[in-house]
Each structure stands twice: as structure tokens, then as C-alpha cells.
Amino acid sequence: MLNLILDRKDNPITAIIYKNPFNVRENETQKESILDIKAETEQGELLDLEIHLLYDADFIHRNIYYHGGMITQALESGEEYVKIKKTISIFIVDFCLFPQTDQYASKFLFKEERENFVLTELVELHYLELPKVNPGRKKTAGELTKLERYLEYLRCAGDASCREYLEDLRSQGGKEIAMTEKLLRKATADEIVREQAIARDKFRLQQHCREVQFKKGLTQAFQDGQKEGISQGKEEGQKELVRNLAASGMERQQIARMAKLSLETVEAWLKG
Q1: Whole-prediction pTM value?
Q2: In whole angstroms, what is the distance from residue 24 CA to residue 18 CA?
Q3: Half-sphere exposure in the Cβ direction for 259 (13 Å, CA)
Q4: Torsion of CA 211, 217, 221, 222, to 10 degrees
Q5: SS3 sequence, 102-135?
Q6: Which among 98, 85, 155 is positioned nearest to 126, based on CA atoms?
């Protein structure tokens, strides 16, 4: 996939070392990015591949900032500057980022402004704008280039309305589409398992917090009752906690068990 995007026919990447796990979006508040892969090639190049769904005003600025951080990591402490590693950022975006051009693939380097010669090839930023690949789907899958078919597959994968188009892309696409389809299926399955585990952990944590809250409340109610010299203080504290726990969704049987009260007493307090 990287060789296809970077057009590395003469000097292809044959092996990479992942520097982080695939960072699929962890919660609904992280909508701007769904994938972030950091890797190093066998040639020592540092790579960052990101897929973004939504545009925001800080997008380019954030790209520059994080690429700058990658540059600082491209040289080990004490090494000579001549050994600095090449850094490459790839941003696949599902929105139009550069209105000044109709081309979907843009590559940015450090260049001299007037005569356009390259200062260094050690820094590359690649942008692939998915809406510009085949607008209106005027081209058939067979008329697209290999890279265009792959990018169209990325954009349409999982969309039931694109079923026939996806089949055409799969049938005429290369190993990149086959590999990505396999990874997407695995990622979806893993995400389901992960979400189930998170839900179980949240439930356990909520139950633990409720138990701690109940015990603290009982202790406080007892102390209040002692201070005032009446036993009614403890009972009122218990009643208040029973009502709060019931309002939080805890089952009445569980409340009775935790408070060492009869179910009848709990129900009577909740009715009162």
C-alpha cells in the first residue's frame, strides 16, 4: 500500500517496523482521525500514515507540528546531522483540502520559491483527497488507475449502497485491496470485542463506586446520628442512600444485599 501511494517502483519498501499499534478511534469524541500508523522502513525512513474524516481549521497546522516532532526523532542523541532519517507523512482525507487544484494527490517538499529546485528530500508530506479521485463516479472501475481504485475502495468500504461498485473495484484491484479488506474485517471484529470488554469494565467500576459510596454514606450517617445522640440520623442517612442508588439504576435486590436490609424495608423506604 505504501509503495502504491508513494509510487516507489525503483526503490520499493520491502519491510517495515511498526512504531505503534493501529490507533483506531477510541471514542466518539475523536471524530477527526480514525487511523494513525507510525512505522520505520528497512531503509530507516520514518513514516506516519493517517486517515481523517472531518476537516477543522487547525488541520494543516497540526500536521506541521506533529511532522516536526517526527523530524526531531529522526536523529539519535549524539549522532551526526548527516545521519538524520527521512520523514514521510501521508494524510488520506475524506474532504477537499486544496480548492486551488483538482488533482487528488499532492506532494509537498522544501523547494526554492522562484526556481523550484529542491532543498532536501528528507521531508515529504503527501495528501490524498478522496472526493477528488472519481467525482460523480464518472469513471468505471476499469478506467481508474491502480491507486485510484485503491483509494475508491477505502472511501466506499462498508457502504451498502456501493456494493456493485465495490465488487468491481475488488475484481480489478490488486493485492493492496485484498490486504486492506482482510485488515478491515479483522479491525471490525477486534473493535467489537474491545467495546464489549470496555462495557464490562465500566459496569464493574460503576458497581464498585456504588458500593464505596454506600459504605461511606452508612459510616457518615452513623457518625451524624452519634453526634446528635439519636438513632434516627443513621436511618435517615440509609434512606437517602437507598433512594440515590435506586435512582442510579441499581436493582432493589442488590441494594438490600449491600445494605444488609430486607427487600421489604428497601421497597418501603422507596415508596415513602
Answers
A1: 0.64
A2: 14
A3: 33
A4: 40
A5: CCCEEEEEEECCCCCCEEEEEEEEEEEEHHHCCH
A6: 98
Query: What H or E segment, with its residue span, contains residue 184?
Result: helix 175-228
Each residue of 152-197: pLDDT tens digit?
998 888 777 888 998 999 888 788 888 888 877 776 666 656 666 6
Cell 439519636 sits on residue = 230
Cα 116 to the center of its chain, rounded Å: 37
How far is the C-alpha of 53 from the C-alpha of 177, rounded, in Å?
Answer: 20
Distances (CA, A) of 217 to 46, 223, 235: 55, 10, 11
pLDDT tens column, 142-160: 999 999 999 999 888 877 7
Q: Are strands 33-41 and 118-129 parallel, antiparallel or unpaired?
A: unpaired
